[in-house]
Specification:
Blueprint (H helix, E strand, L loop, with lengths): L9 H11 L6 E7 L2 E6 H18 L6 E5 L4 H11 L4 E4 L6 H11 L3 E4 L2 H10 L8 E4 L5 H4 L7 E2 L2 H10 L1 H14 L5 E7 L7 E6 H14 L8 E4 L6 H14 L2 E4 L6 H8 L3 E4 L1 H16 L3 H22 L6 H20 L7 E4 L6 H9 L3 E7 L6 E4 L12 E2 L3 E6 L6 E5 L13 E7 L5 E2 L3 H7 L6 E10 L2 E7 L4 E2 L5 E2 L1 H8 L5 E7 L6 E7 L1 H8 L12 E2 L2 H15 L8 E7 L18 H7 L1 H7 L8
Parallel strand pairs: 1-11, 3-4, 3-5, 4-8, 5-6, 6-7, 10-11, 12-13, 13-14, 26-28
Antiparallel strand pairs: 1-2, 8-9, 9-20, 14-15, 15-16, 17-18, 17-19, 19-21, 21-22, 23-24, 25-26, 27-28
Helix pairs in contact: 1-10, 2-3, 2-7, 2-8, 4-5, 9-10, 13-14, 13-15
Length: 637
């Protein structure tokens, strides 16, 4: 995908589409209203973005001003983003799940002048803290009946509905059109496009400064690597646009290539939406793929008999076919015929649940367990994995479409360098680029470091913290441990996550946890064992599996006790833990565990918005319960 040099900023991407790829009357966005999917053209999108720009210019918004978004994925997000970006405004998207105090901190730290709000629940949050945010001038609800929430409230910020904002912006648009065009032309690739706040697993939120060049170049090189993406593709977007992964890998890829975007109604309705819009590409997190895996296994085997035998036979054929394709020898005539039958009897039915047109999933945000990737490979459903952080725009590496090395996160993208550095001595073992790729290369393990076009400008208002992660040679230190394996990047874990037991053995929690997550009985697992004699865990069982096996009603999960003490449940989970422990070294095996009634959550402050466990917070919160695990007799090797 080659962009002309003048199309090198976020607001210029859609201009490139209507100038060189699609007529402006073509559909860009799809949104379900009531029971109907509405098609929204490029012209409609750009007209509404211009209206937003017009309104903001009337407010006195200028280049570099920060404007906030706290709303779900929707056309309104796009209009607002495009409108503020093309006059040089900076997008500050806030995760809707953050607490009021965290939202207040971000509004004040970023110096937000306006914030668009997506739901009555979120509006109530903003109204509670509005007077603690002296720089906030406008609150913009996207829904029409917001007045009932603002009546008799004494707040200093003005409130205007988004529809009214569009109306007022359009009324002045003719007078401001030339100014909007001039603002858009004045934006440079080095200018700030977004602040994305990330707290990681510890600490105060940090605003990651990403430039127009960061985003545009990241989207461009991803398309250069994944050439199968076509201008007529349809993305189904359900991950939050407040997260850099969805922002780049769905929204900006579509803005660059000319693909359509359909916005899913909710996670609960995602399965229905997939069948309705029939997407060709979806960005997702591993948990979605794990759910599809678990449901497929359950559906294929629960009735037993001939149906289960056909299902298991099909998976076996799929595995043989996948492995044959991965070697120099091609699948023979018999295997090709068997795979065709397996596809007709089993695989096609699973593919239909995704809409039947899916070219590939792209998985990011967390590590995809190797067995899940292999399962989809056996179904002949391609799952591309990518790796990166908010600080890297985010993509550093991505799987090549025709070369799946399960358990790795792909080849380094063009234009950057990725090194592996010894954690203790700081010696750099190797530096790899897209051009030095060697499919047989294997490196030692160490911290992953990167420099190049994907690296952030720094942390907003935090020069000292920026200097800690970006060294004098320009290397950004990711904090992730990994290596190169068969030329691809392979992630082991976060440095901060490493557990060192009392015997001095290093244990990486993520691969161990992923081993136990192969059990369909387990929803989440949190490993414990730093400076301890052995490994223990807090295990969250699958609610669906619990209810099916033990007949628990919904009320069971509302009981105040945090942990389930029922010996039958503990024994039921212990069966799988013992079985899966055989795949691990003895010092990695769980010797004792507690069963948590409900999952760790963002709302409880236990998970980051990208669903990573906040290790220190969880260990502190459940310290007394964890201590009891080291007072009880181990249930065995």
């Amino acid at each position: 995908m080659h962009l002309k040099s003048k199309y090198n900023t976020v607001p210029s991407l859609l201009r490139n589409v209507v100038a060189n790829i699609h007529p402006e009357t073509n559909t860009f966005l799809m949104d379900k209203v009531a029971d109907k999917w509405l098609n929204i053209s490029y012209k409609e999108t750009l007209d509404r973005a211009d209206a937003v720009s017009s309104y903001f210019l009337g407010m006195g918004i200028s280049k570099g001003d920060r404007l906030g978004l706290i709303l779900e994925n929707s056309p309104a997000y796009v209009y607002y983003d495009q409108g503020l970006q093309q006059i040089g405004g900076v997008n500050v998207s806030i995760y809707p799940t953050l607490s009021e105090s965290e939202i207040e901190y971000i509004i004040n730290d970023a110096g937000l002048k306006t914030i668009i709000v997506g739901t009555p629940f979120l509006l109530k949050k903003i109204l509670k803290i509005a007077n603690n945010c002296p720089g906030l001038e406008r609150i913009i609800p996207t829904f029409d009946d917001f007045d009932k929430h603002t009546v008799d409230l004494n707040i200093t910020a003005g409130v205007i509905g988004f529809n009214q904002l569009i109306k007022e912006g359009k009324a002045c648009l003719n007078d401001r059109k030339q100014q909007i065009d001039a603002c858009r032309e004045a934006i440079l690739p080095t200018d700030l496009s977004a602040l994305i706040y990330t707290s990681g697993t510890t600490g105060i939120p940090k605003g990651v400064m990403l430039t127009h060049g960061n985003f545009v170049e990241n989207a461009r090189v991803c398309l250069e690597m994944i050439t199968i993406v076509d201008k007529d593709d349809l993305f189904l977007s359900f991950l939050p646009l407040s997260h850099v992964f969805e922002r780049t890998c769905s929204y900006l890829i579509c803005c660059t290539k000319g693909c359509k975007i359909a916005f899913a109604q909710s996670l609960e309705l995602l399965a229905r939406n997939m069948e309705e819009v029939k997407p060709t590409i979806m960005a997702c997190v591993p948990r979605l793929l794990e759910r599809i895996h678990d449901k497929s296994i359950k559906t294929g085997t629960q009735d037993g008999g001939i149906k289960e035998k056909i299902f298991n036979w099909a998976l076996q054929i799929g595995e043989e076919f996948r492995k044959a394709k991965a070697t120099d020898s091609k699948p023979g005539m018999l295997l090709n015929m068997q795979q065709s039958i397996a596809n007709k009897l089993v695989f096609s039915k699973i593919k239909e649940k995704t809409g039947g047109r899916l070219k590939f999933f792209i998985s990011g945000g967390a590590a995809l367990p190797k067995n899940i990737g292999e399962f989809f490979g056996n179904l002949d459903i391609v799952v591309l994995e990518g790796f990166g952080l908010t600080e890297t725009s985010p993509v550093m590496s991505v799987t090549e479409f025709d070369r799946q090395i399960y358990g790795t996160v792909g080849r380094i993208i063009p234009g950057i360098e990725v090194g592996i550095q010894n954690v203790d001595s700081k010696k750099i073992y190797t530096i790899q680029t897209y051009l030095t790729f060697n499919k047989d290369f294997v490196s030692p393990e160490g911290e992953i470091i990167v420099r190049g076009h994907c690296v952030m400008k720094g942390y907003w208002n935090k020069p000292e913290e920026t200097s800690i992660v970006i060294d004098q040679d320009g290397w950004f230190h990711t904090g992730d441990v990994g290596q190169f394996y068969e030329g691809n990047l392979k992630i082991t874990d976060r440095i901060k996550n490493i557990l060192v037991n009392s015997y001095g053995k290093n244990i990486y929690p993520t691969p161990v946890e992923n081993t136990y997550l192969k059990s369909t009985k387990i929803e989440q697992i949190f490993l414990i064992g730093d400076k301890r004699e052995y490994i223990t865990a807090i295990v969250v069982p699958s609610r669906e599996a619990l209810q099916e096996t033990f007949g628990y009603k919904d009320e069971f999960f509302q009981e105040p006790e945090l942990f389930i003490e029922d010996e039958a449940v503990v024994s039921w989970i212990a069966q799988d833990i013992k079985r899966l422990s055989n795949e691990l070294a003895k010092f990695e095996r769980i010797k004792q565990f507690k069963v948590k009634r409900n999952p760790f959550s963002i709302e409880a402050g236990e998970m980051t918005p990208s669903l990573k466990a906040k290790r220190k917070i969880i260990e502190k919160k459940y310290a007394e319960d964890i201590d009891t695990l080291y007072m009880e007799e181990s249930f065995g090797e």
